């Protein structure tokens, strides 16, 4: 028989009447912070969700216009008929997405680095990158696509491409790089000044200090934010459709215009979701893992 | 013998804060100069000026007789001869110990990987870190991190080493191992300038002690004389406080 067997069960400890630290009816510190714990809380959450969905479904399905809407947006025949063409067009979206993302990650890094360079010699570059960032963060992406996609080809300059895909990607890169450069810059600024001093004190040049000491830490700090931008870019590629490029959204619209049925738009939406949801889950997973690794490092 | 380092009338201001008020200091080869004084008296700033991490507002600093505080100086060339170790170690957290130590030899001094790594491993072995070669800094104790930082500075084979309160951030029981490393360097004949709060250590190893107060060197001399017979009232007051605090 061990000591533990002799212990009183925990429930047997009674709080003295009129305890100074327990108010009657209080949920208690931990319950108050994290919601109701245990199976009872989960049951309530589940039941309320189901109840809400059932009520919503009854309201929608019983509405007068439902049969019409169902036929317009959720028609299985139209789903099957429009799917192959939209899937093929969606592949184009993904290709443009991949090209744009690679260009954004590199160009934004360059802009961010120019913006944090020290020394009077780099002043013009700092100003230039600041102006660029202010400009392209301030103009809606859709406008940039319109202006570059229709404007530049209209100039009819020799040797300048006219393809809507080219200018669509350029617009995405210019607009997204402005945001992404700021993400990188916040990462660069999150690395403590002493790291730069340590690198410079070892005789490394400003560039070498950036390349070997600062950037690797800065980029690691902003990977979650970069992944977030990835999710966002993945769907904004569809904006290039306004230039008449036959990517997924455009293809769906063409089908809709031909058949007067909106199901094709749903097809495009589902295709975008199939890609963006896993990326979003991955971003969350990575962020959580990175946070765990850091807290462990602190102990 | 000529001076390795000489500071002549060095002034430094941070905004309207006058942190160095005319510092004159000469350091000969194999000297061990200890800068002592309360926090904010300018010890660290002197070291950072010698390493050109800070610019000097007035006066000049000479390295082996050549003026280094002028526009034409390439700070990276100076730093190849002058190493510095900081209070907060400042190891690169994304690199393991070996990469931390070999970064400068490879990128600045143009050594090959094998040569740089052999030298680094030999140095790490010498300072009792041979089992930490592939560890990352966050897996090391403060004392181990600071010893790695010293090895990192030594790997570039500096002729002068600046130590900026390198035991101040350590747990008391870890101070000894780092002081032991400094003793080894002194035995090797390294020229050292160290800012320190370890008075007992300064008395043991210094060839000269400089007491800084409010941006000026108030009193300096050999440690025996300095600690047993300080001349200035301000020095006497400082040392009395240090003794009262049990630090000497």
Oligomeric grouping of the chains: heterodimer
* Strand line-up of the largest beta sheet of chain B: 6-7-8-3-9-10
What's the CATH C level of the domain at 84-291 in chain A? Mainly Alpha
Total DSSP E strands of chain A: 0
* Envelope shape of chain A: flat
CATH architecture group name of chain B: 3-Layer(aba) Sandwich
CATH superfamily heading of the domain at 84-291 in chain A: MetI-like
SSE string of chain B, helices as H and strands as E: EEEHEEHEHHHEHEHEEHH
Distance between the termini of chain A: 38 Å
What kind of sheet is the major sheet of chain A? Answer: none
CATH architecture of the domain at 84-291 in chain A: Orthogonal Bundle
Q: What is the share of helical residues of chain B?
A: 25-40%
Structural class of chain B: alpha/beta
- State the separation between the terminal residues of chain B, measured CA to CA: 33 Å
CATH fold annotation of the domain at 84-291 in chain A: MetI-like fold
Class computed from helices, strands and strand pairing of chain A: mainly alpha
- Unreliable runs of chain A, pLDDT <50, ≥5 residues? 1-5
Explain this structure.
The complex is a heterodimer of chains A (299) and B (248). Chain A has 299 residues and is mostly helical. Chain A has a domain at 84-291: Orthogonal Bundle (MetI-like fold). Chain A is built from eleven helices and no strands. Chain A has helices at 29-34, 38-61, 66-73, 76-116, 123-138, 141-155, 164-190, 193-201, 206-236, 248-259, 263-298. In chain A, α10 (248-259) packs antiparallel against α11. Chain A is flat and about 75 Å long. Residues 1-5 of chain A have low confidence and may be disordered. The longest helix of chain B is centred in the last third of the chain and has 16 residues, at 172-187. Chain B has helices at residues 43-50, 75-79, 97-107, 113-126, 142-154, 172-187, 199-205, 223-228, 233-244, and strands spanning 3-14, 17-28, 32-36, 58-63, 66-67, 82-85, 160-164, 191-195, 208-213, 216-221. A six-stranded mixed beta sheet of chain B has the order 6-7-8-3-9-10, sandwiched between helices. A four-stranded antiparallel beta sheet of chain B has the order 2-1-4-5, covered by helices on one side. Chain B has one domain (3-244): Rossmann fold, CATH 3.40.50.300. Chain B is built from nine helices and ten strands. In chain B, α3 packs across α4 (113-126), α3 (97-107) runs parallel beside α5 and α5 packs parallel to α6. The two termini of chain B are 33 Å apart. In chain B, β4 and β5 (66-67) form a beta hairpin. Chain B is of the alpha/beta class and 248 residues long. The interface between A and B is medium-sized, with 19 and 25 residues.
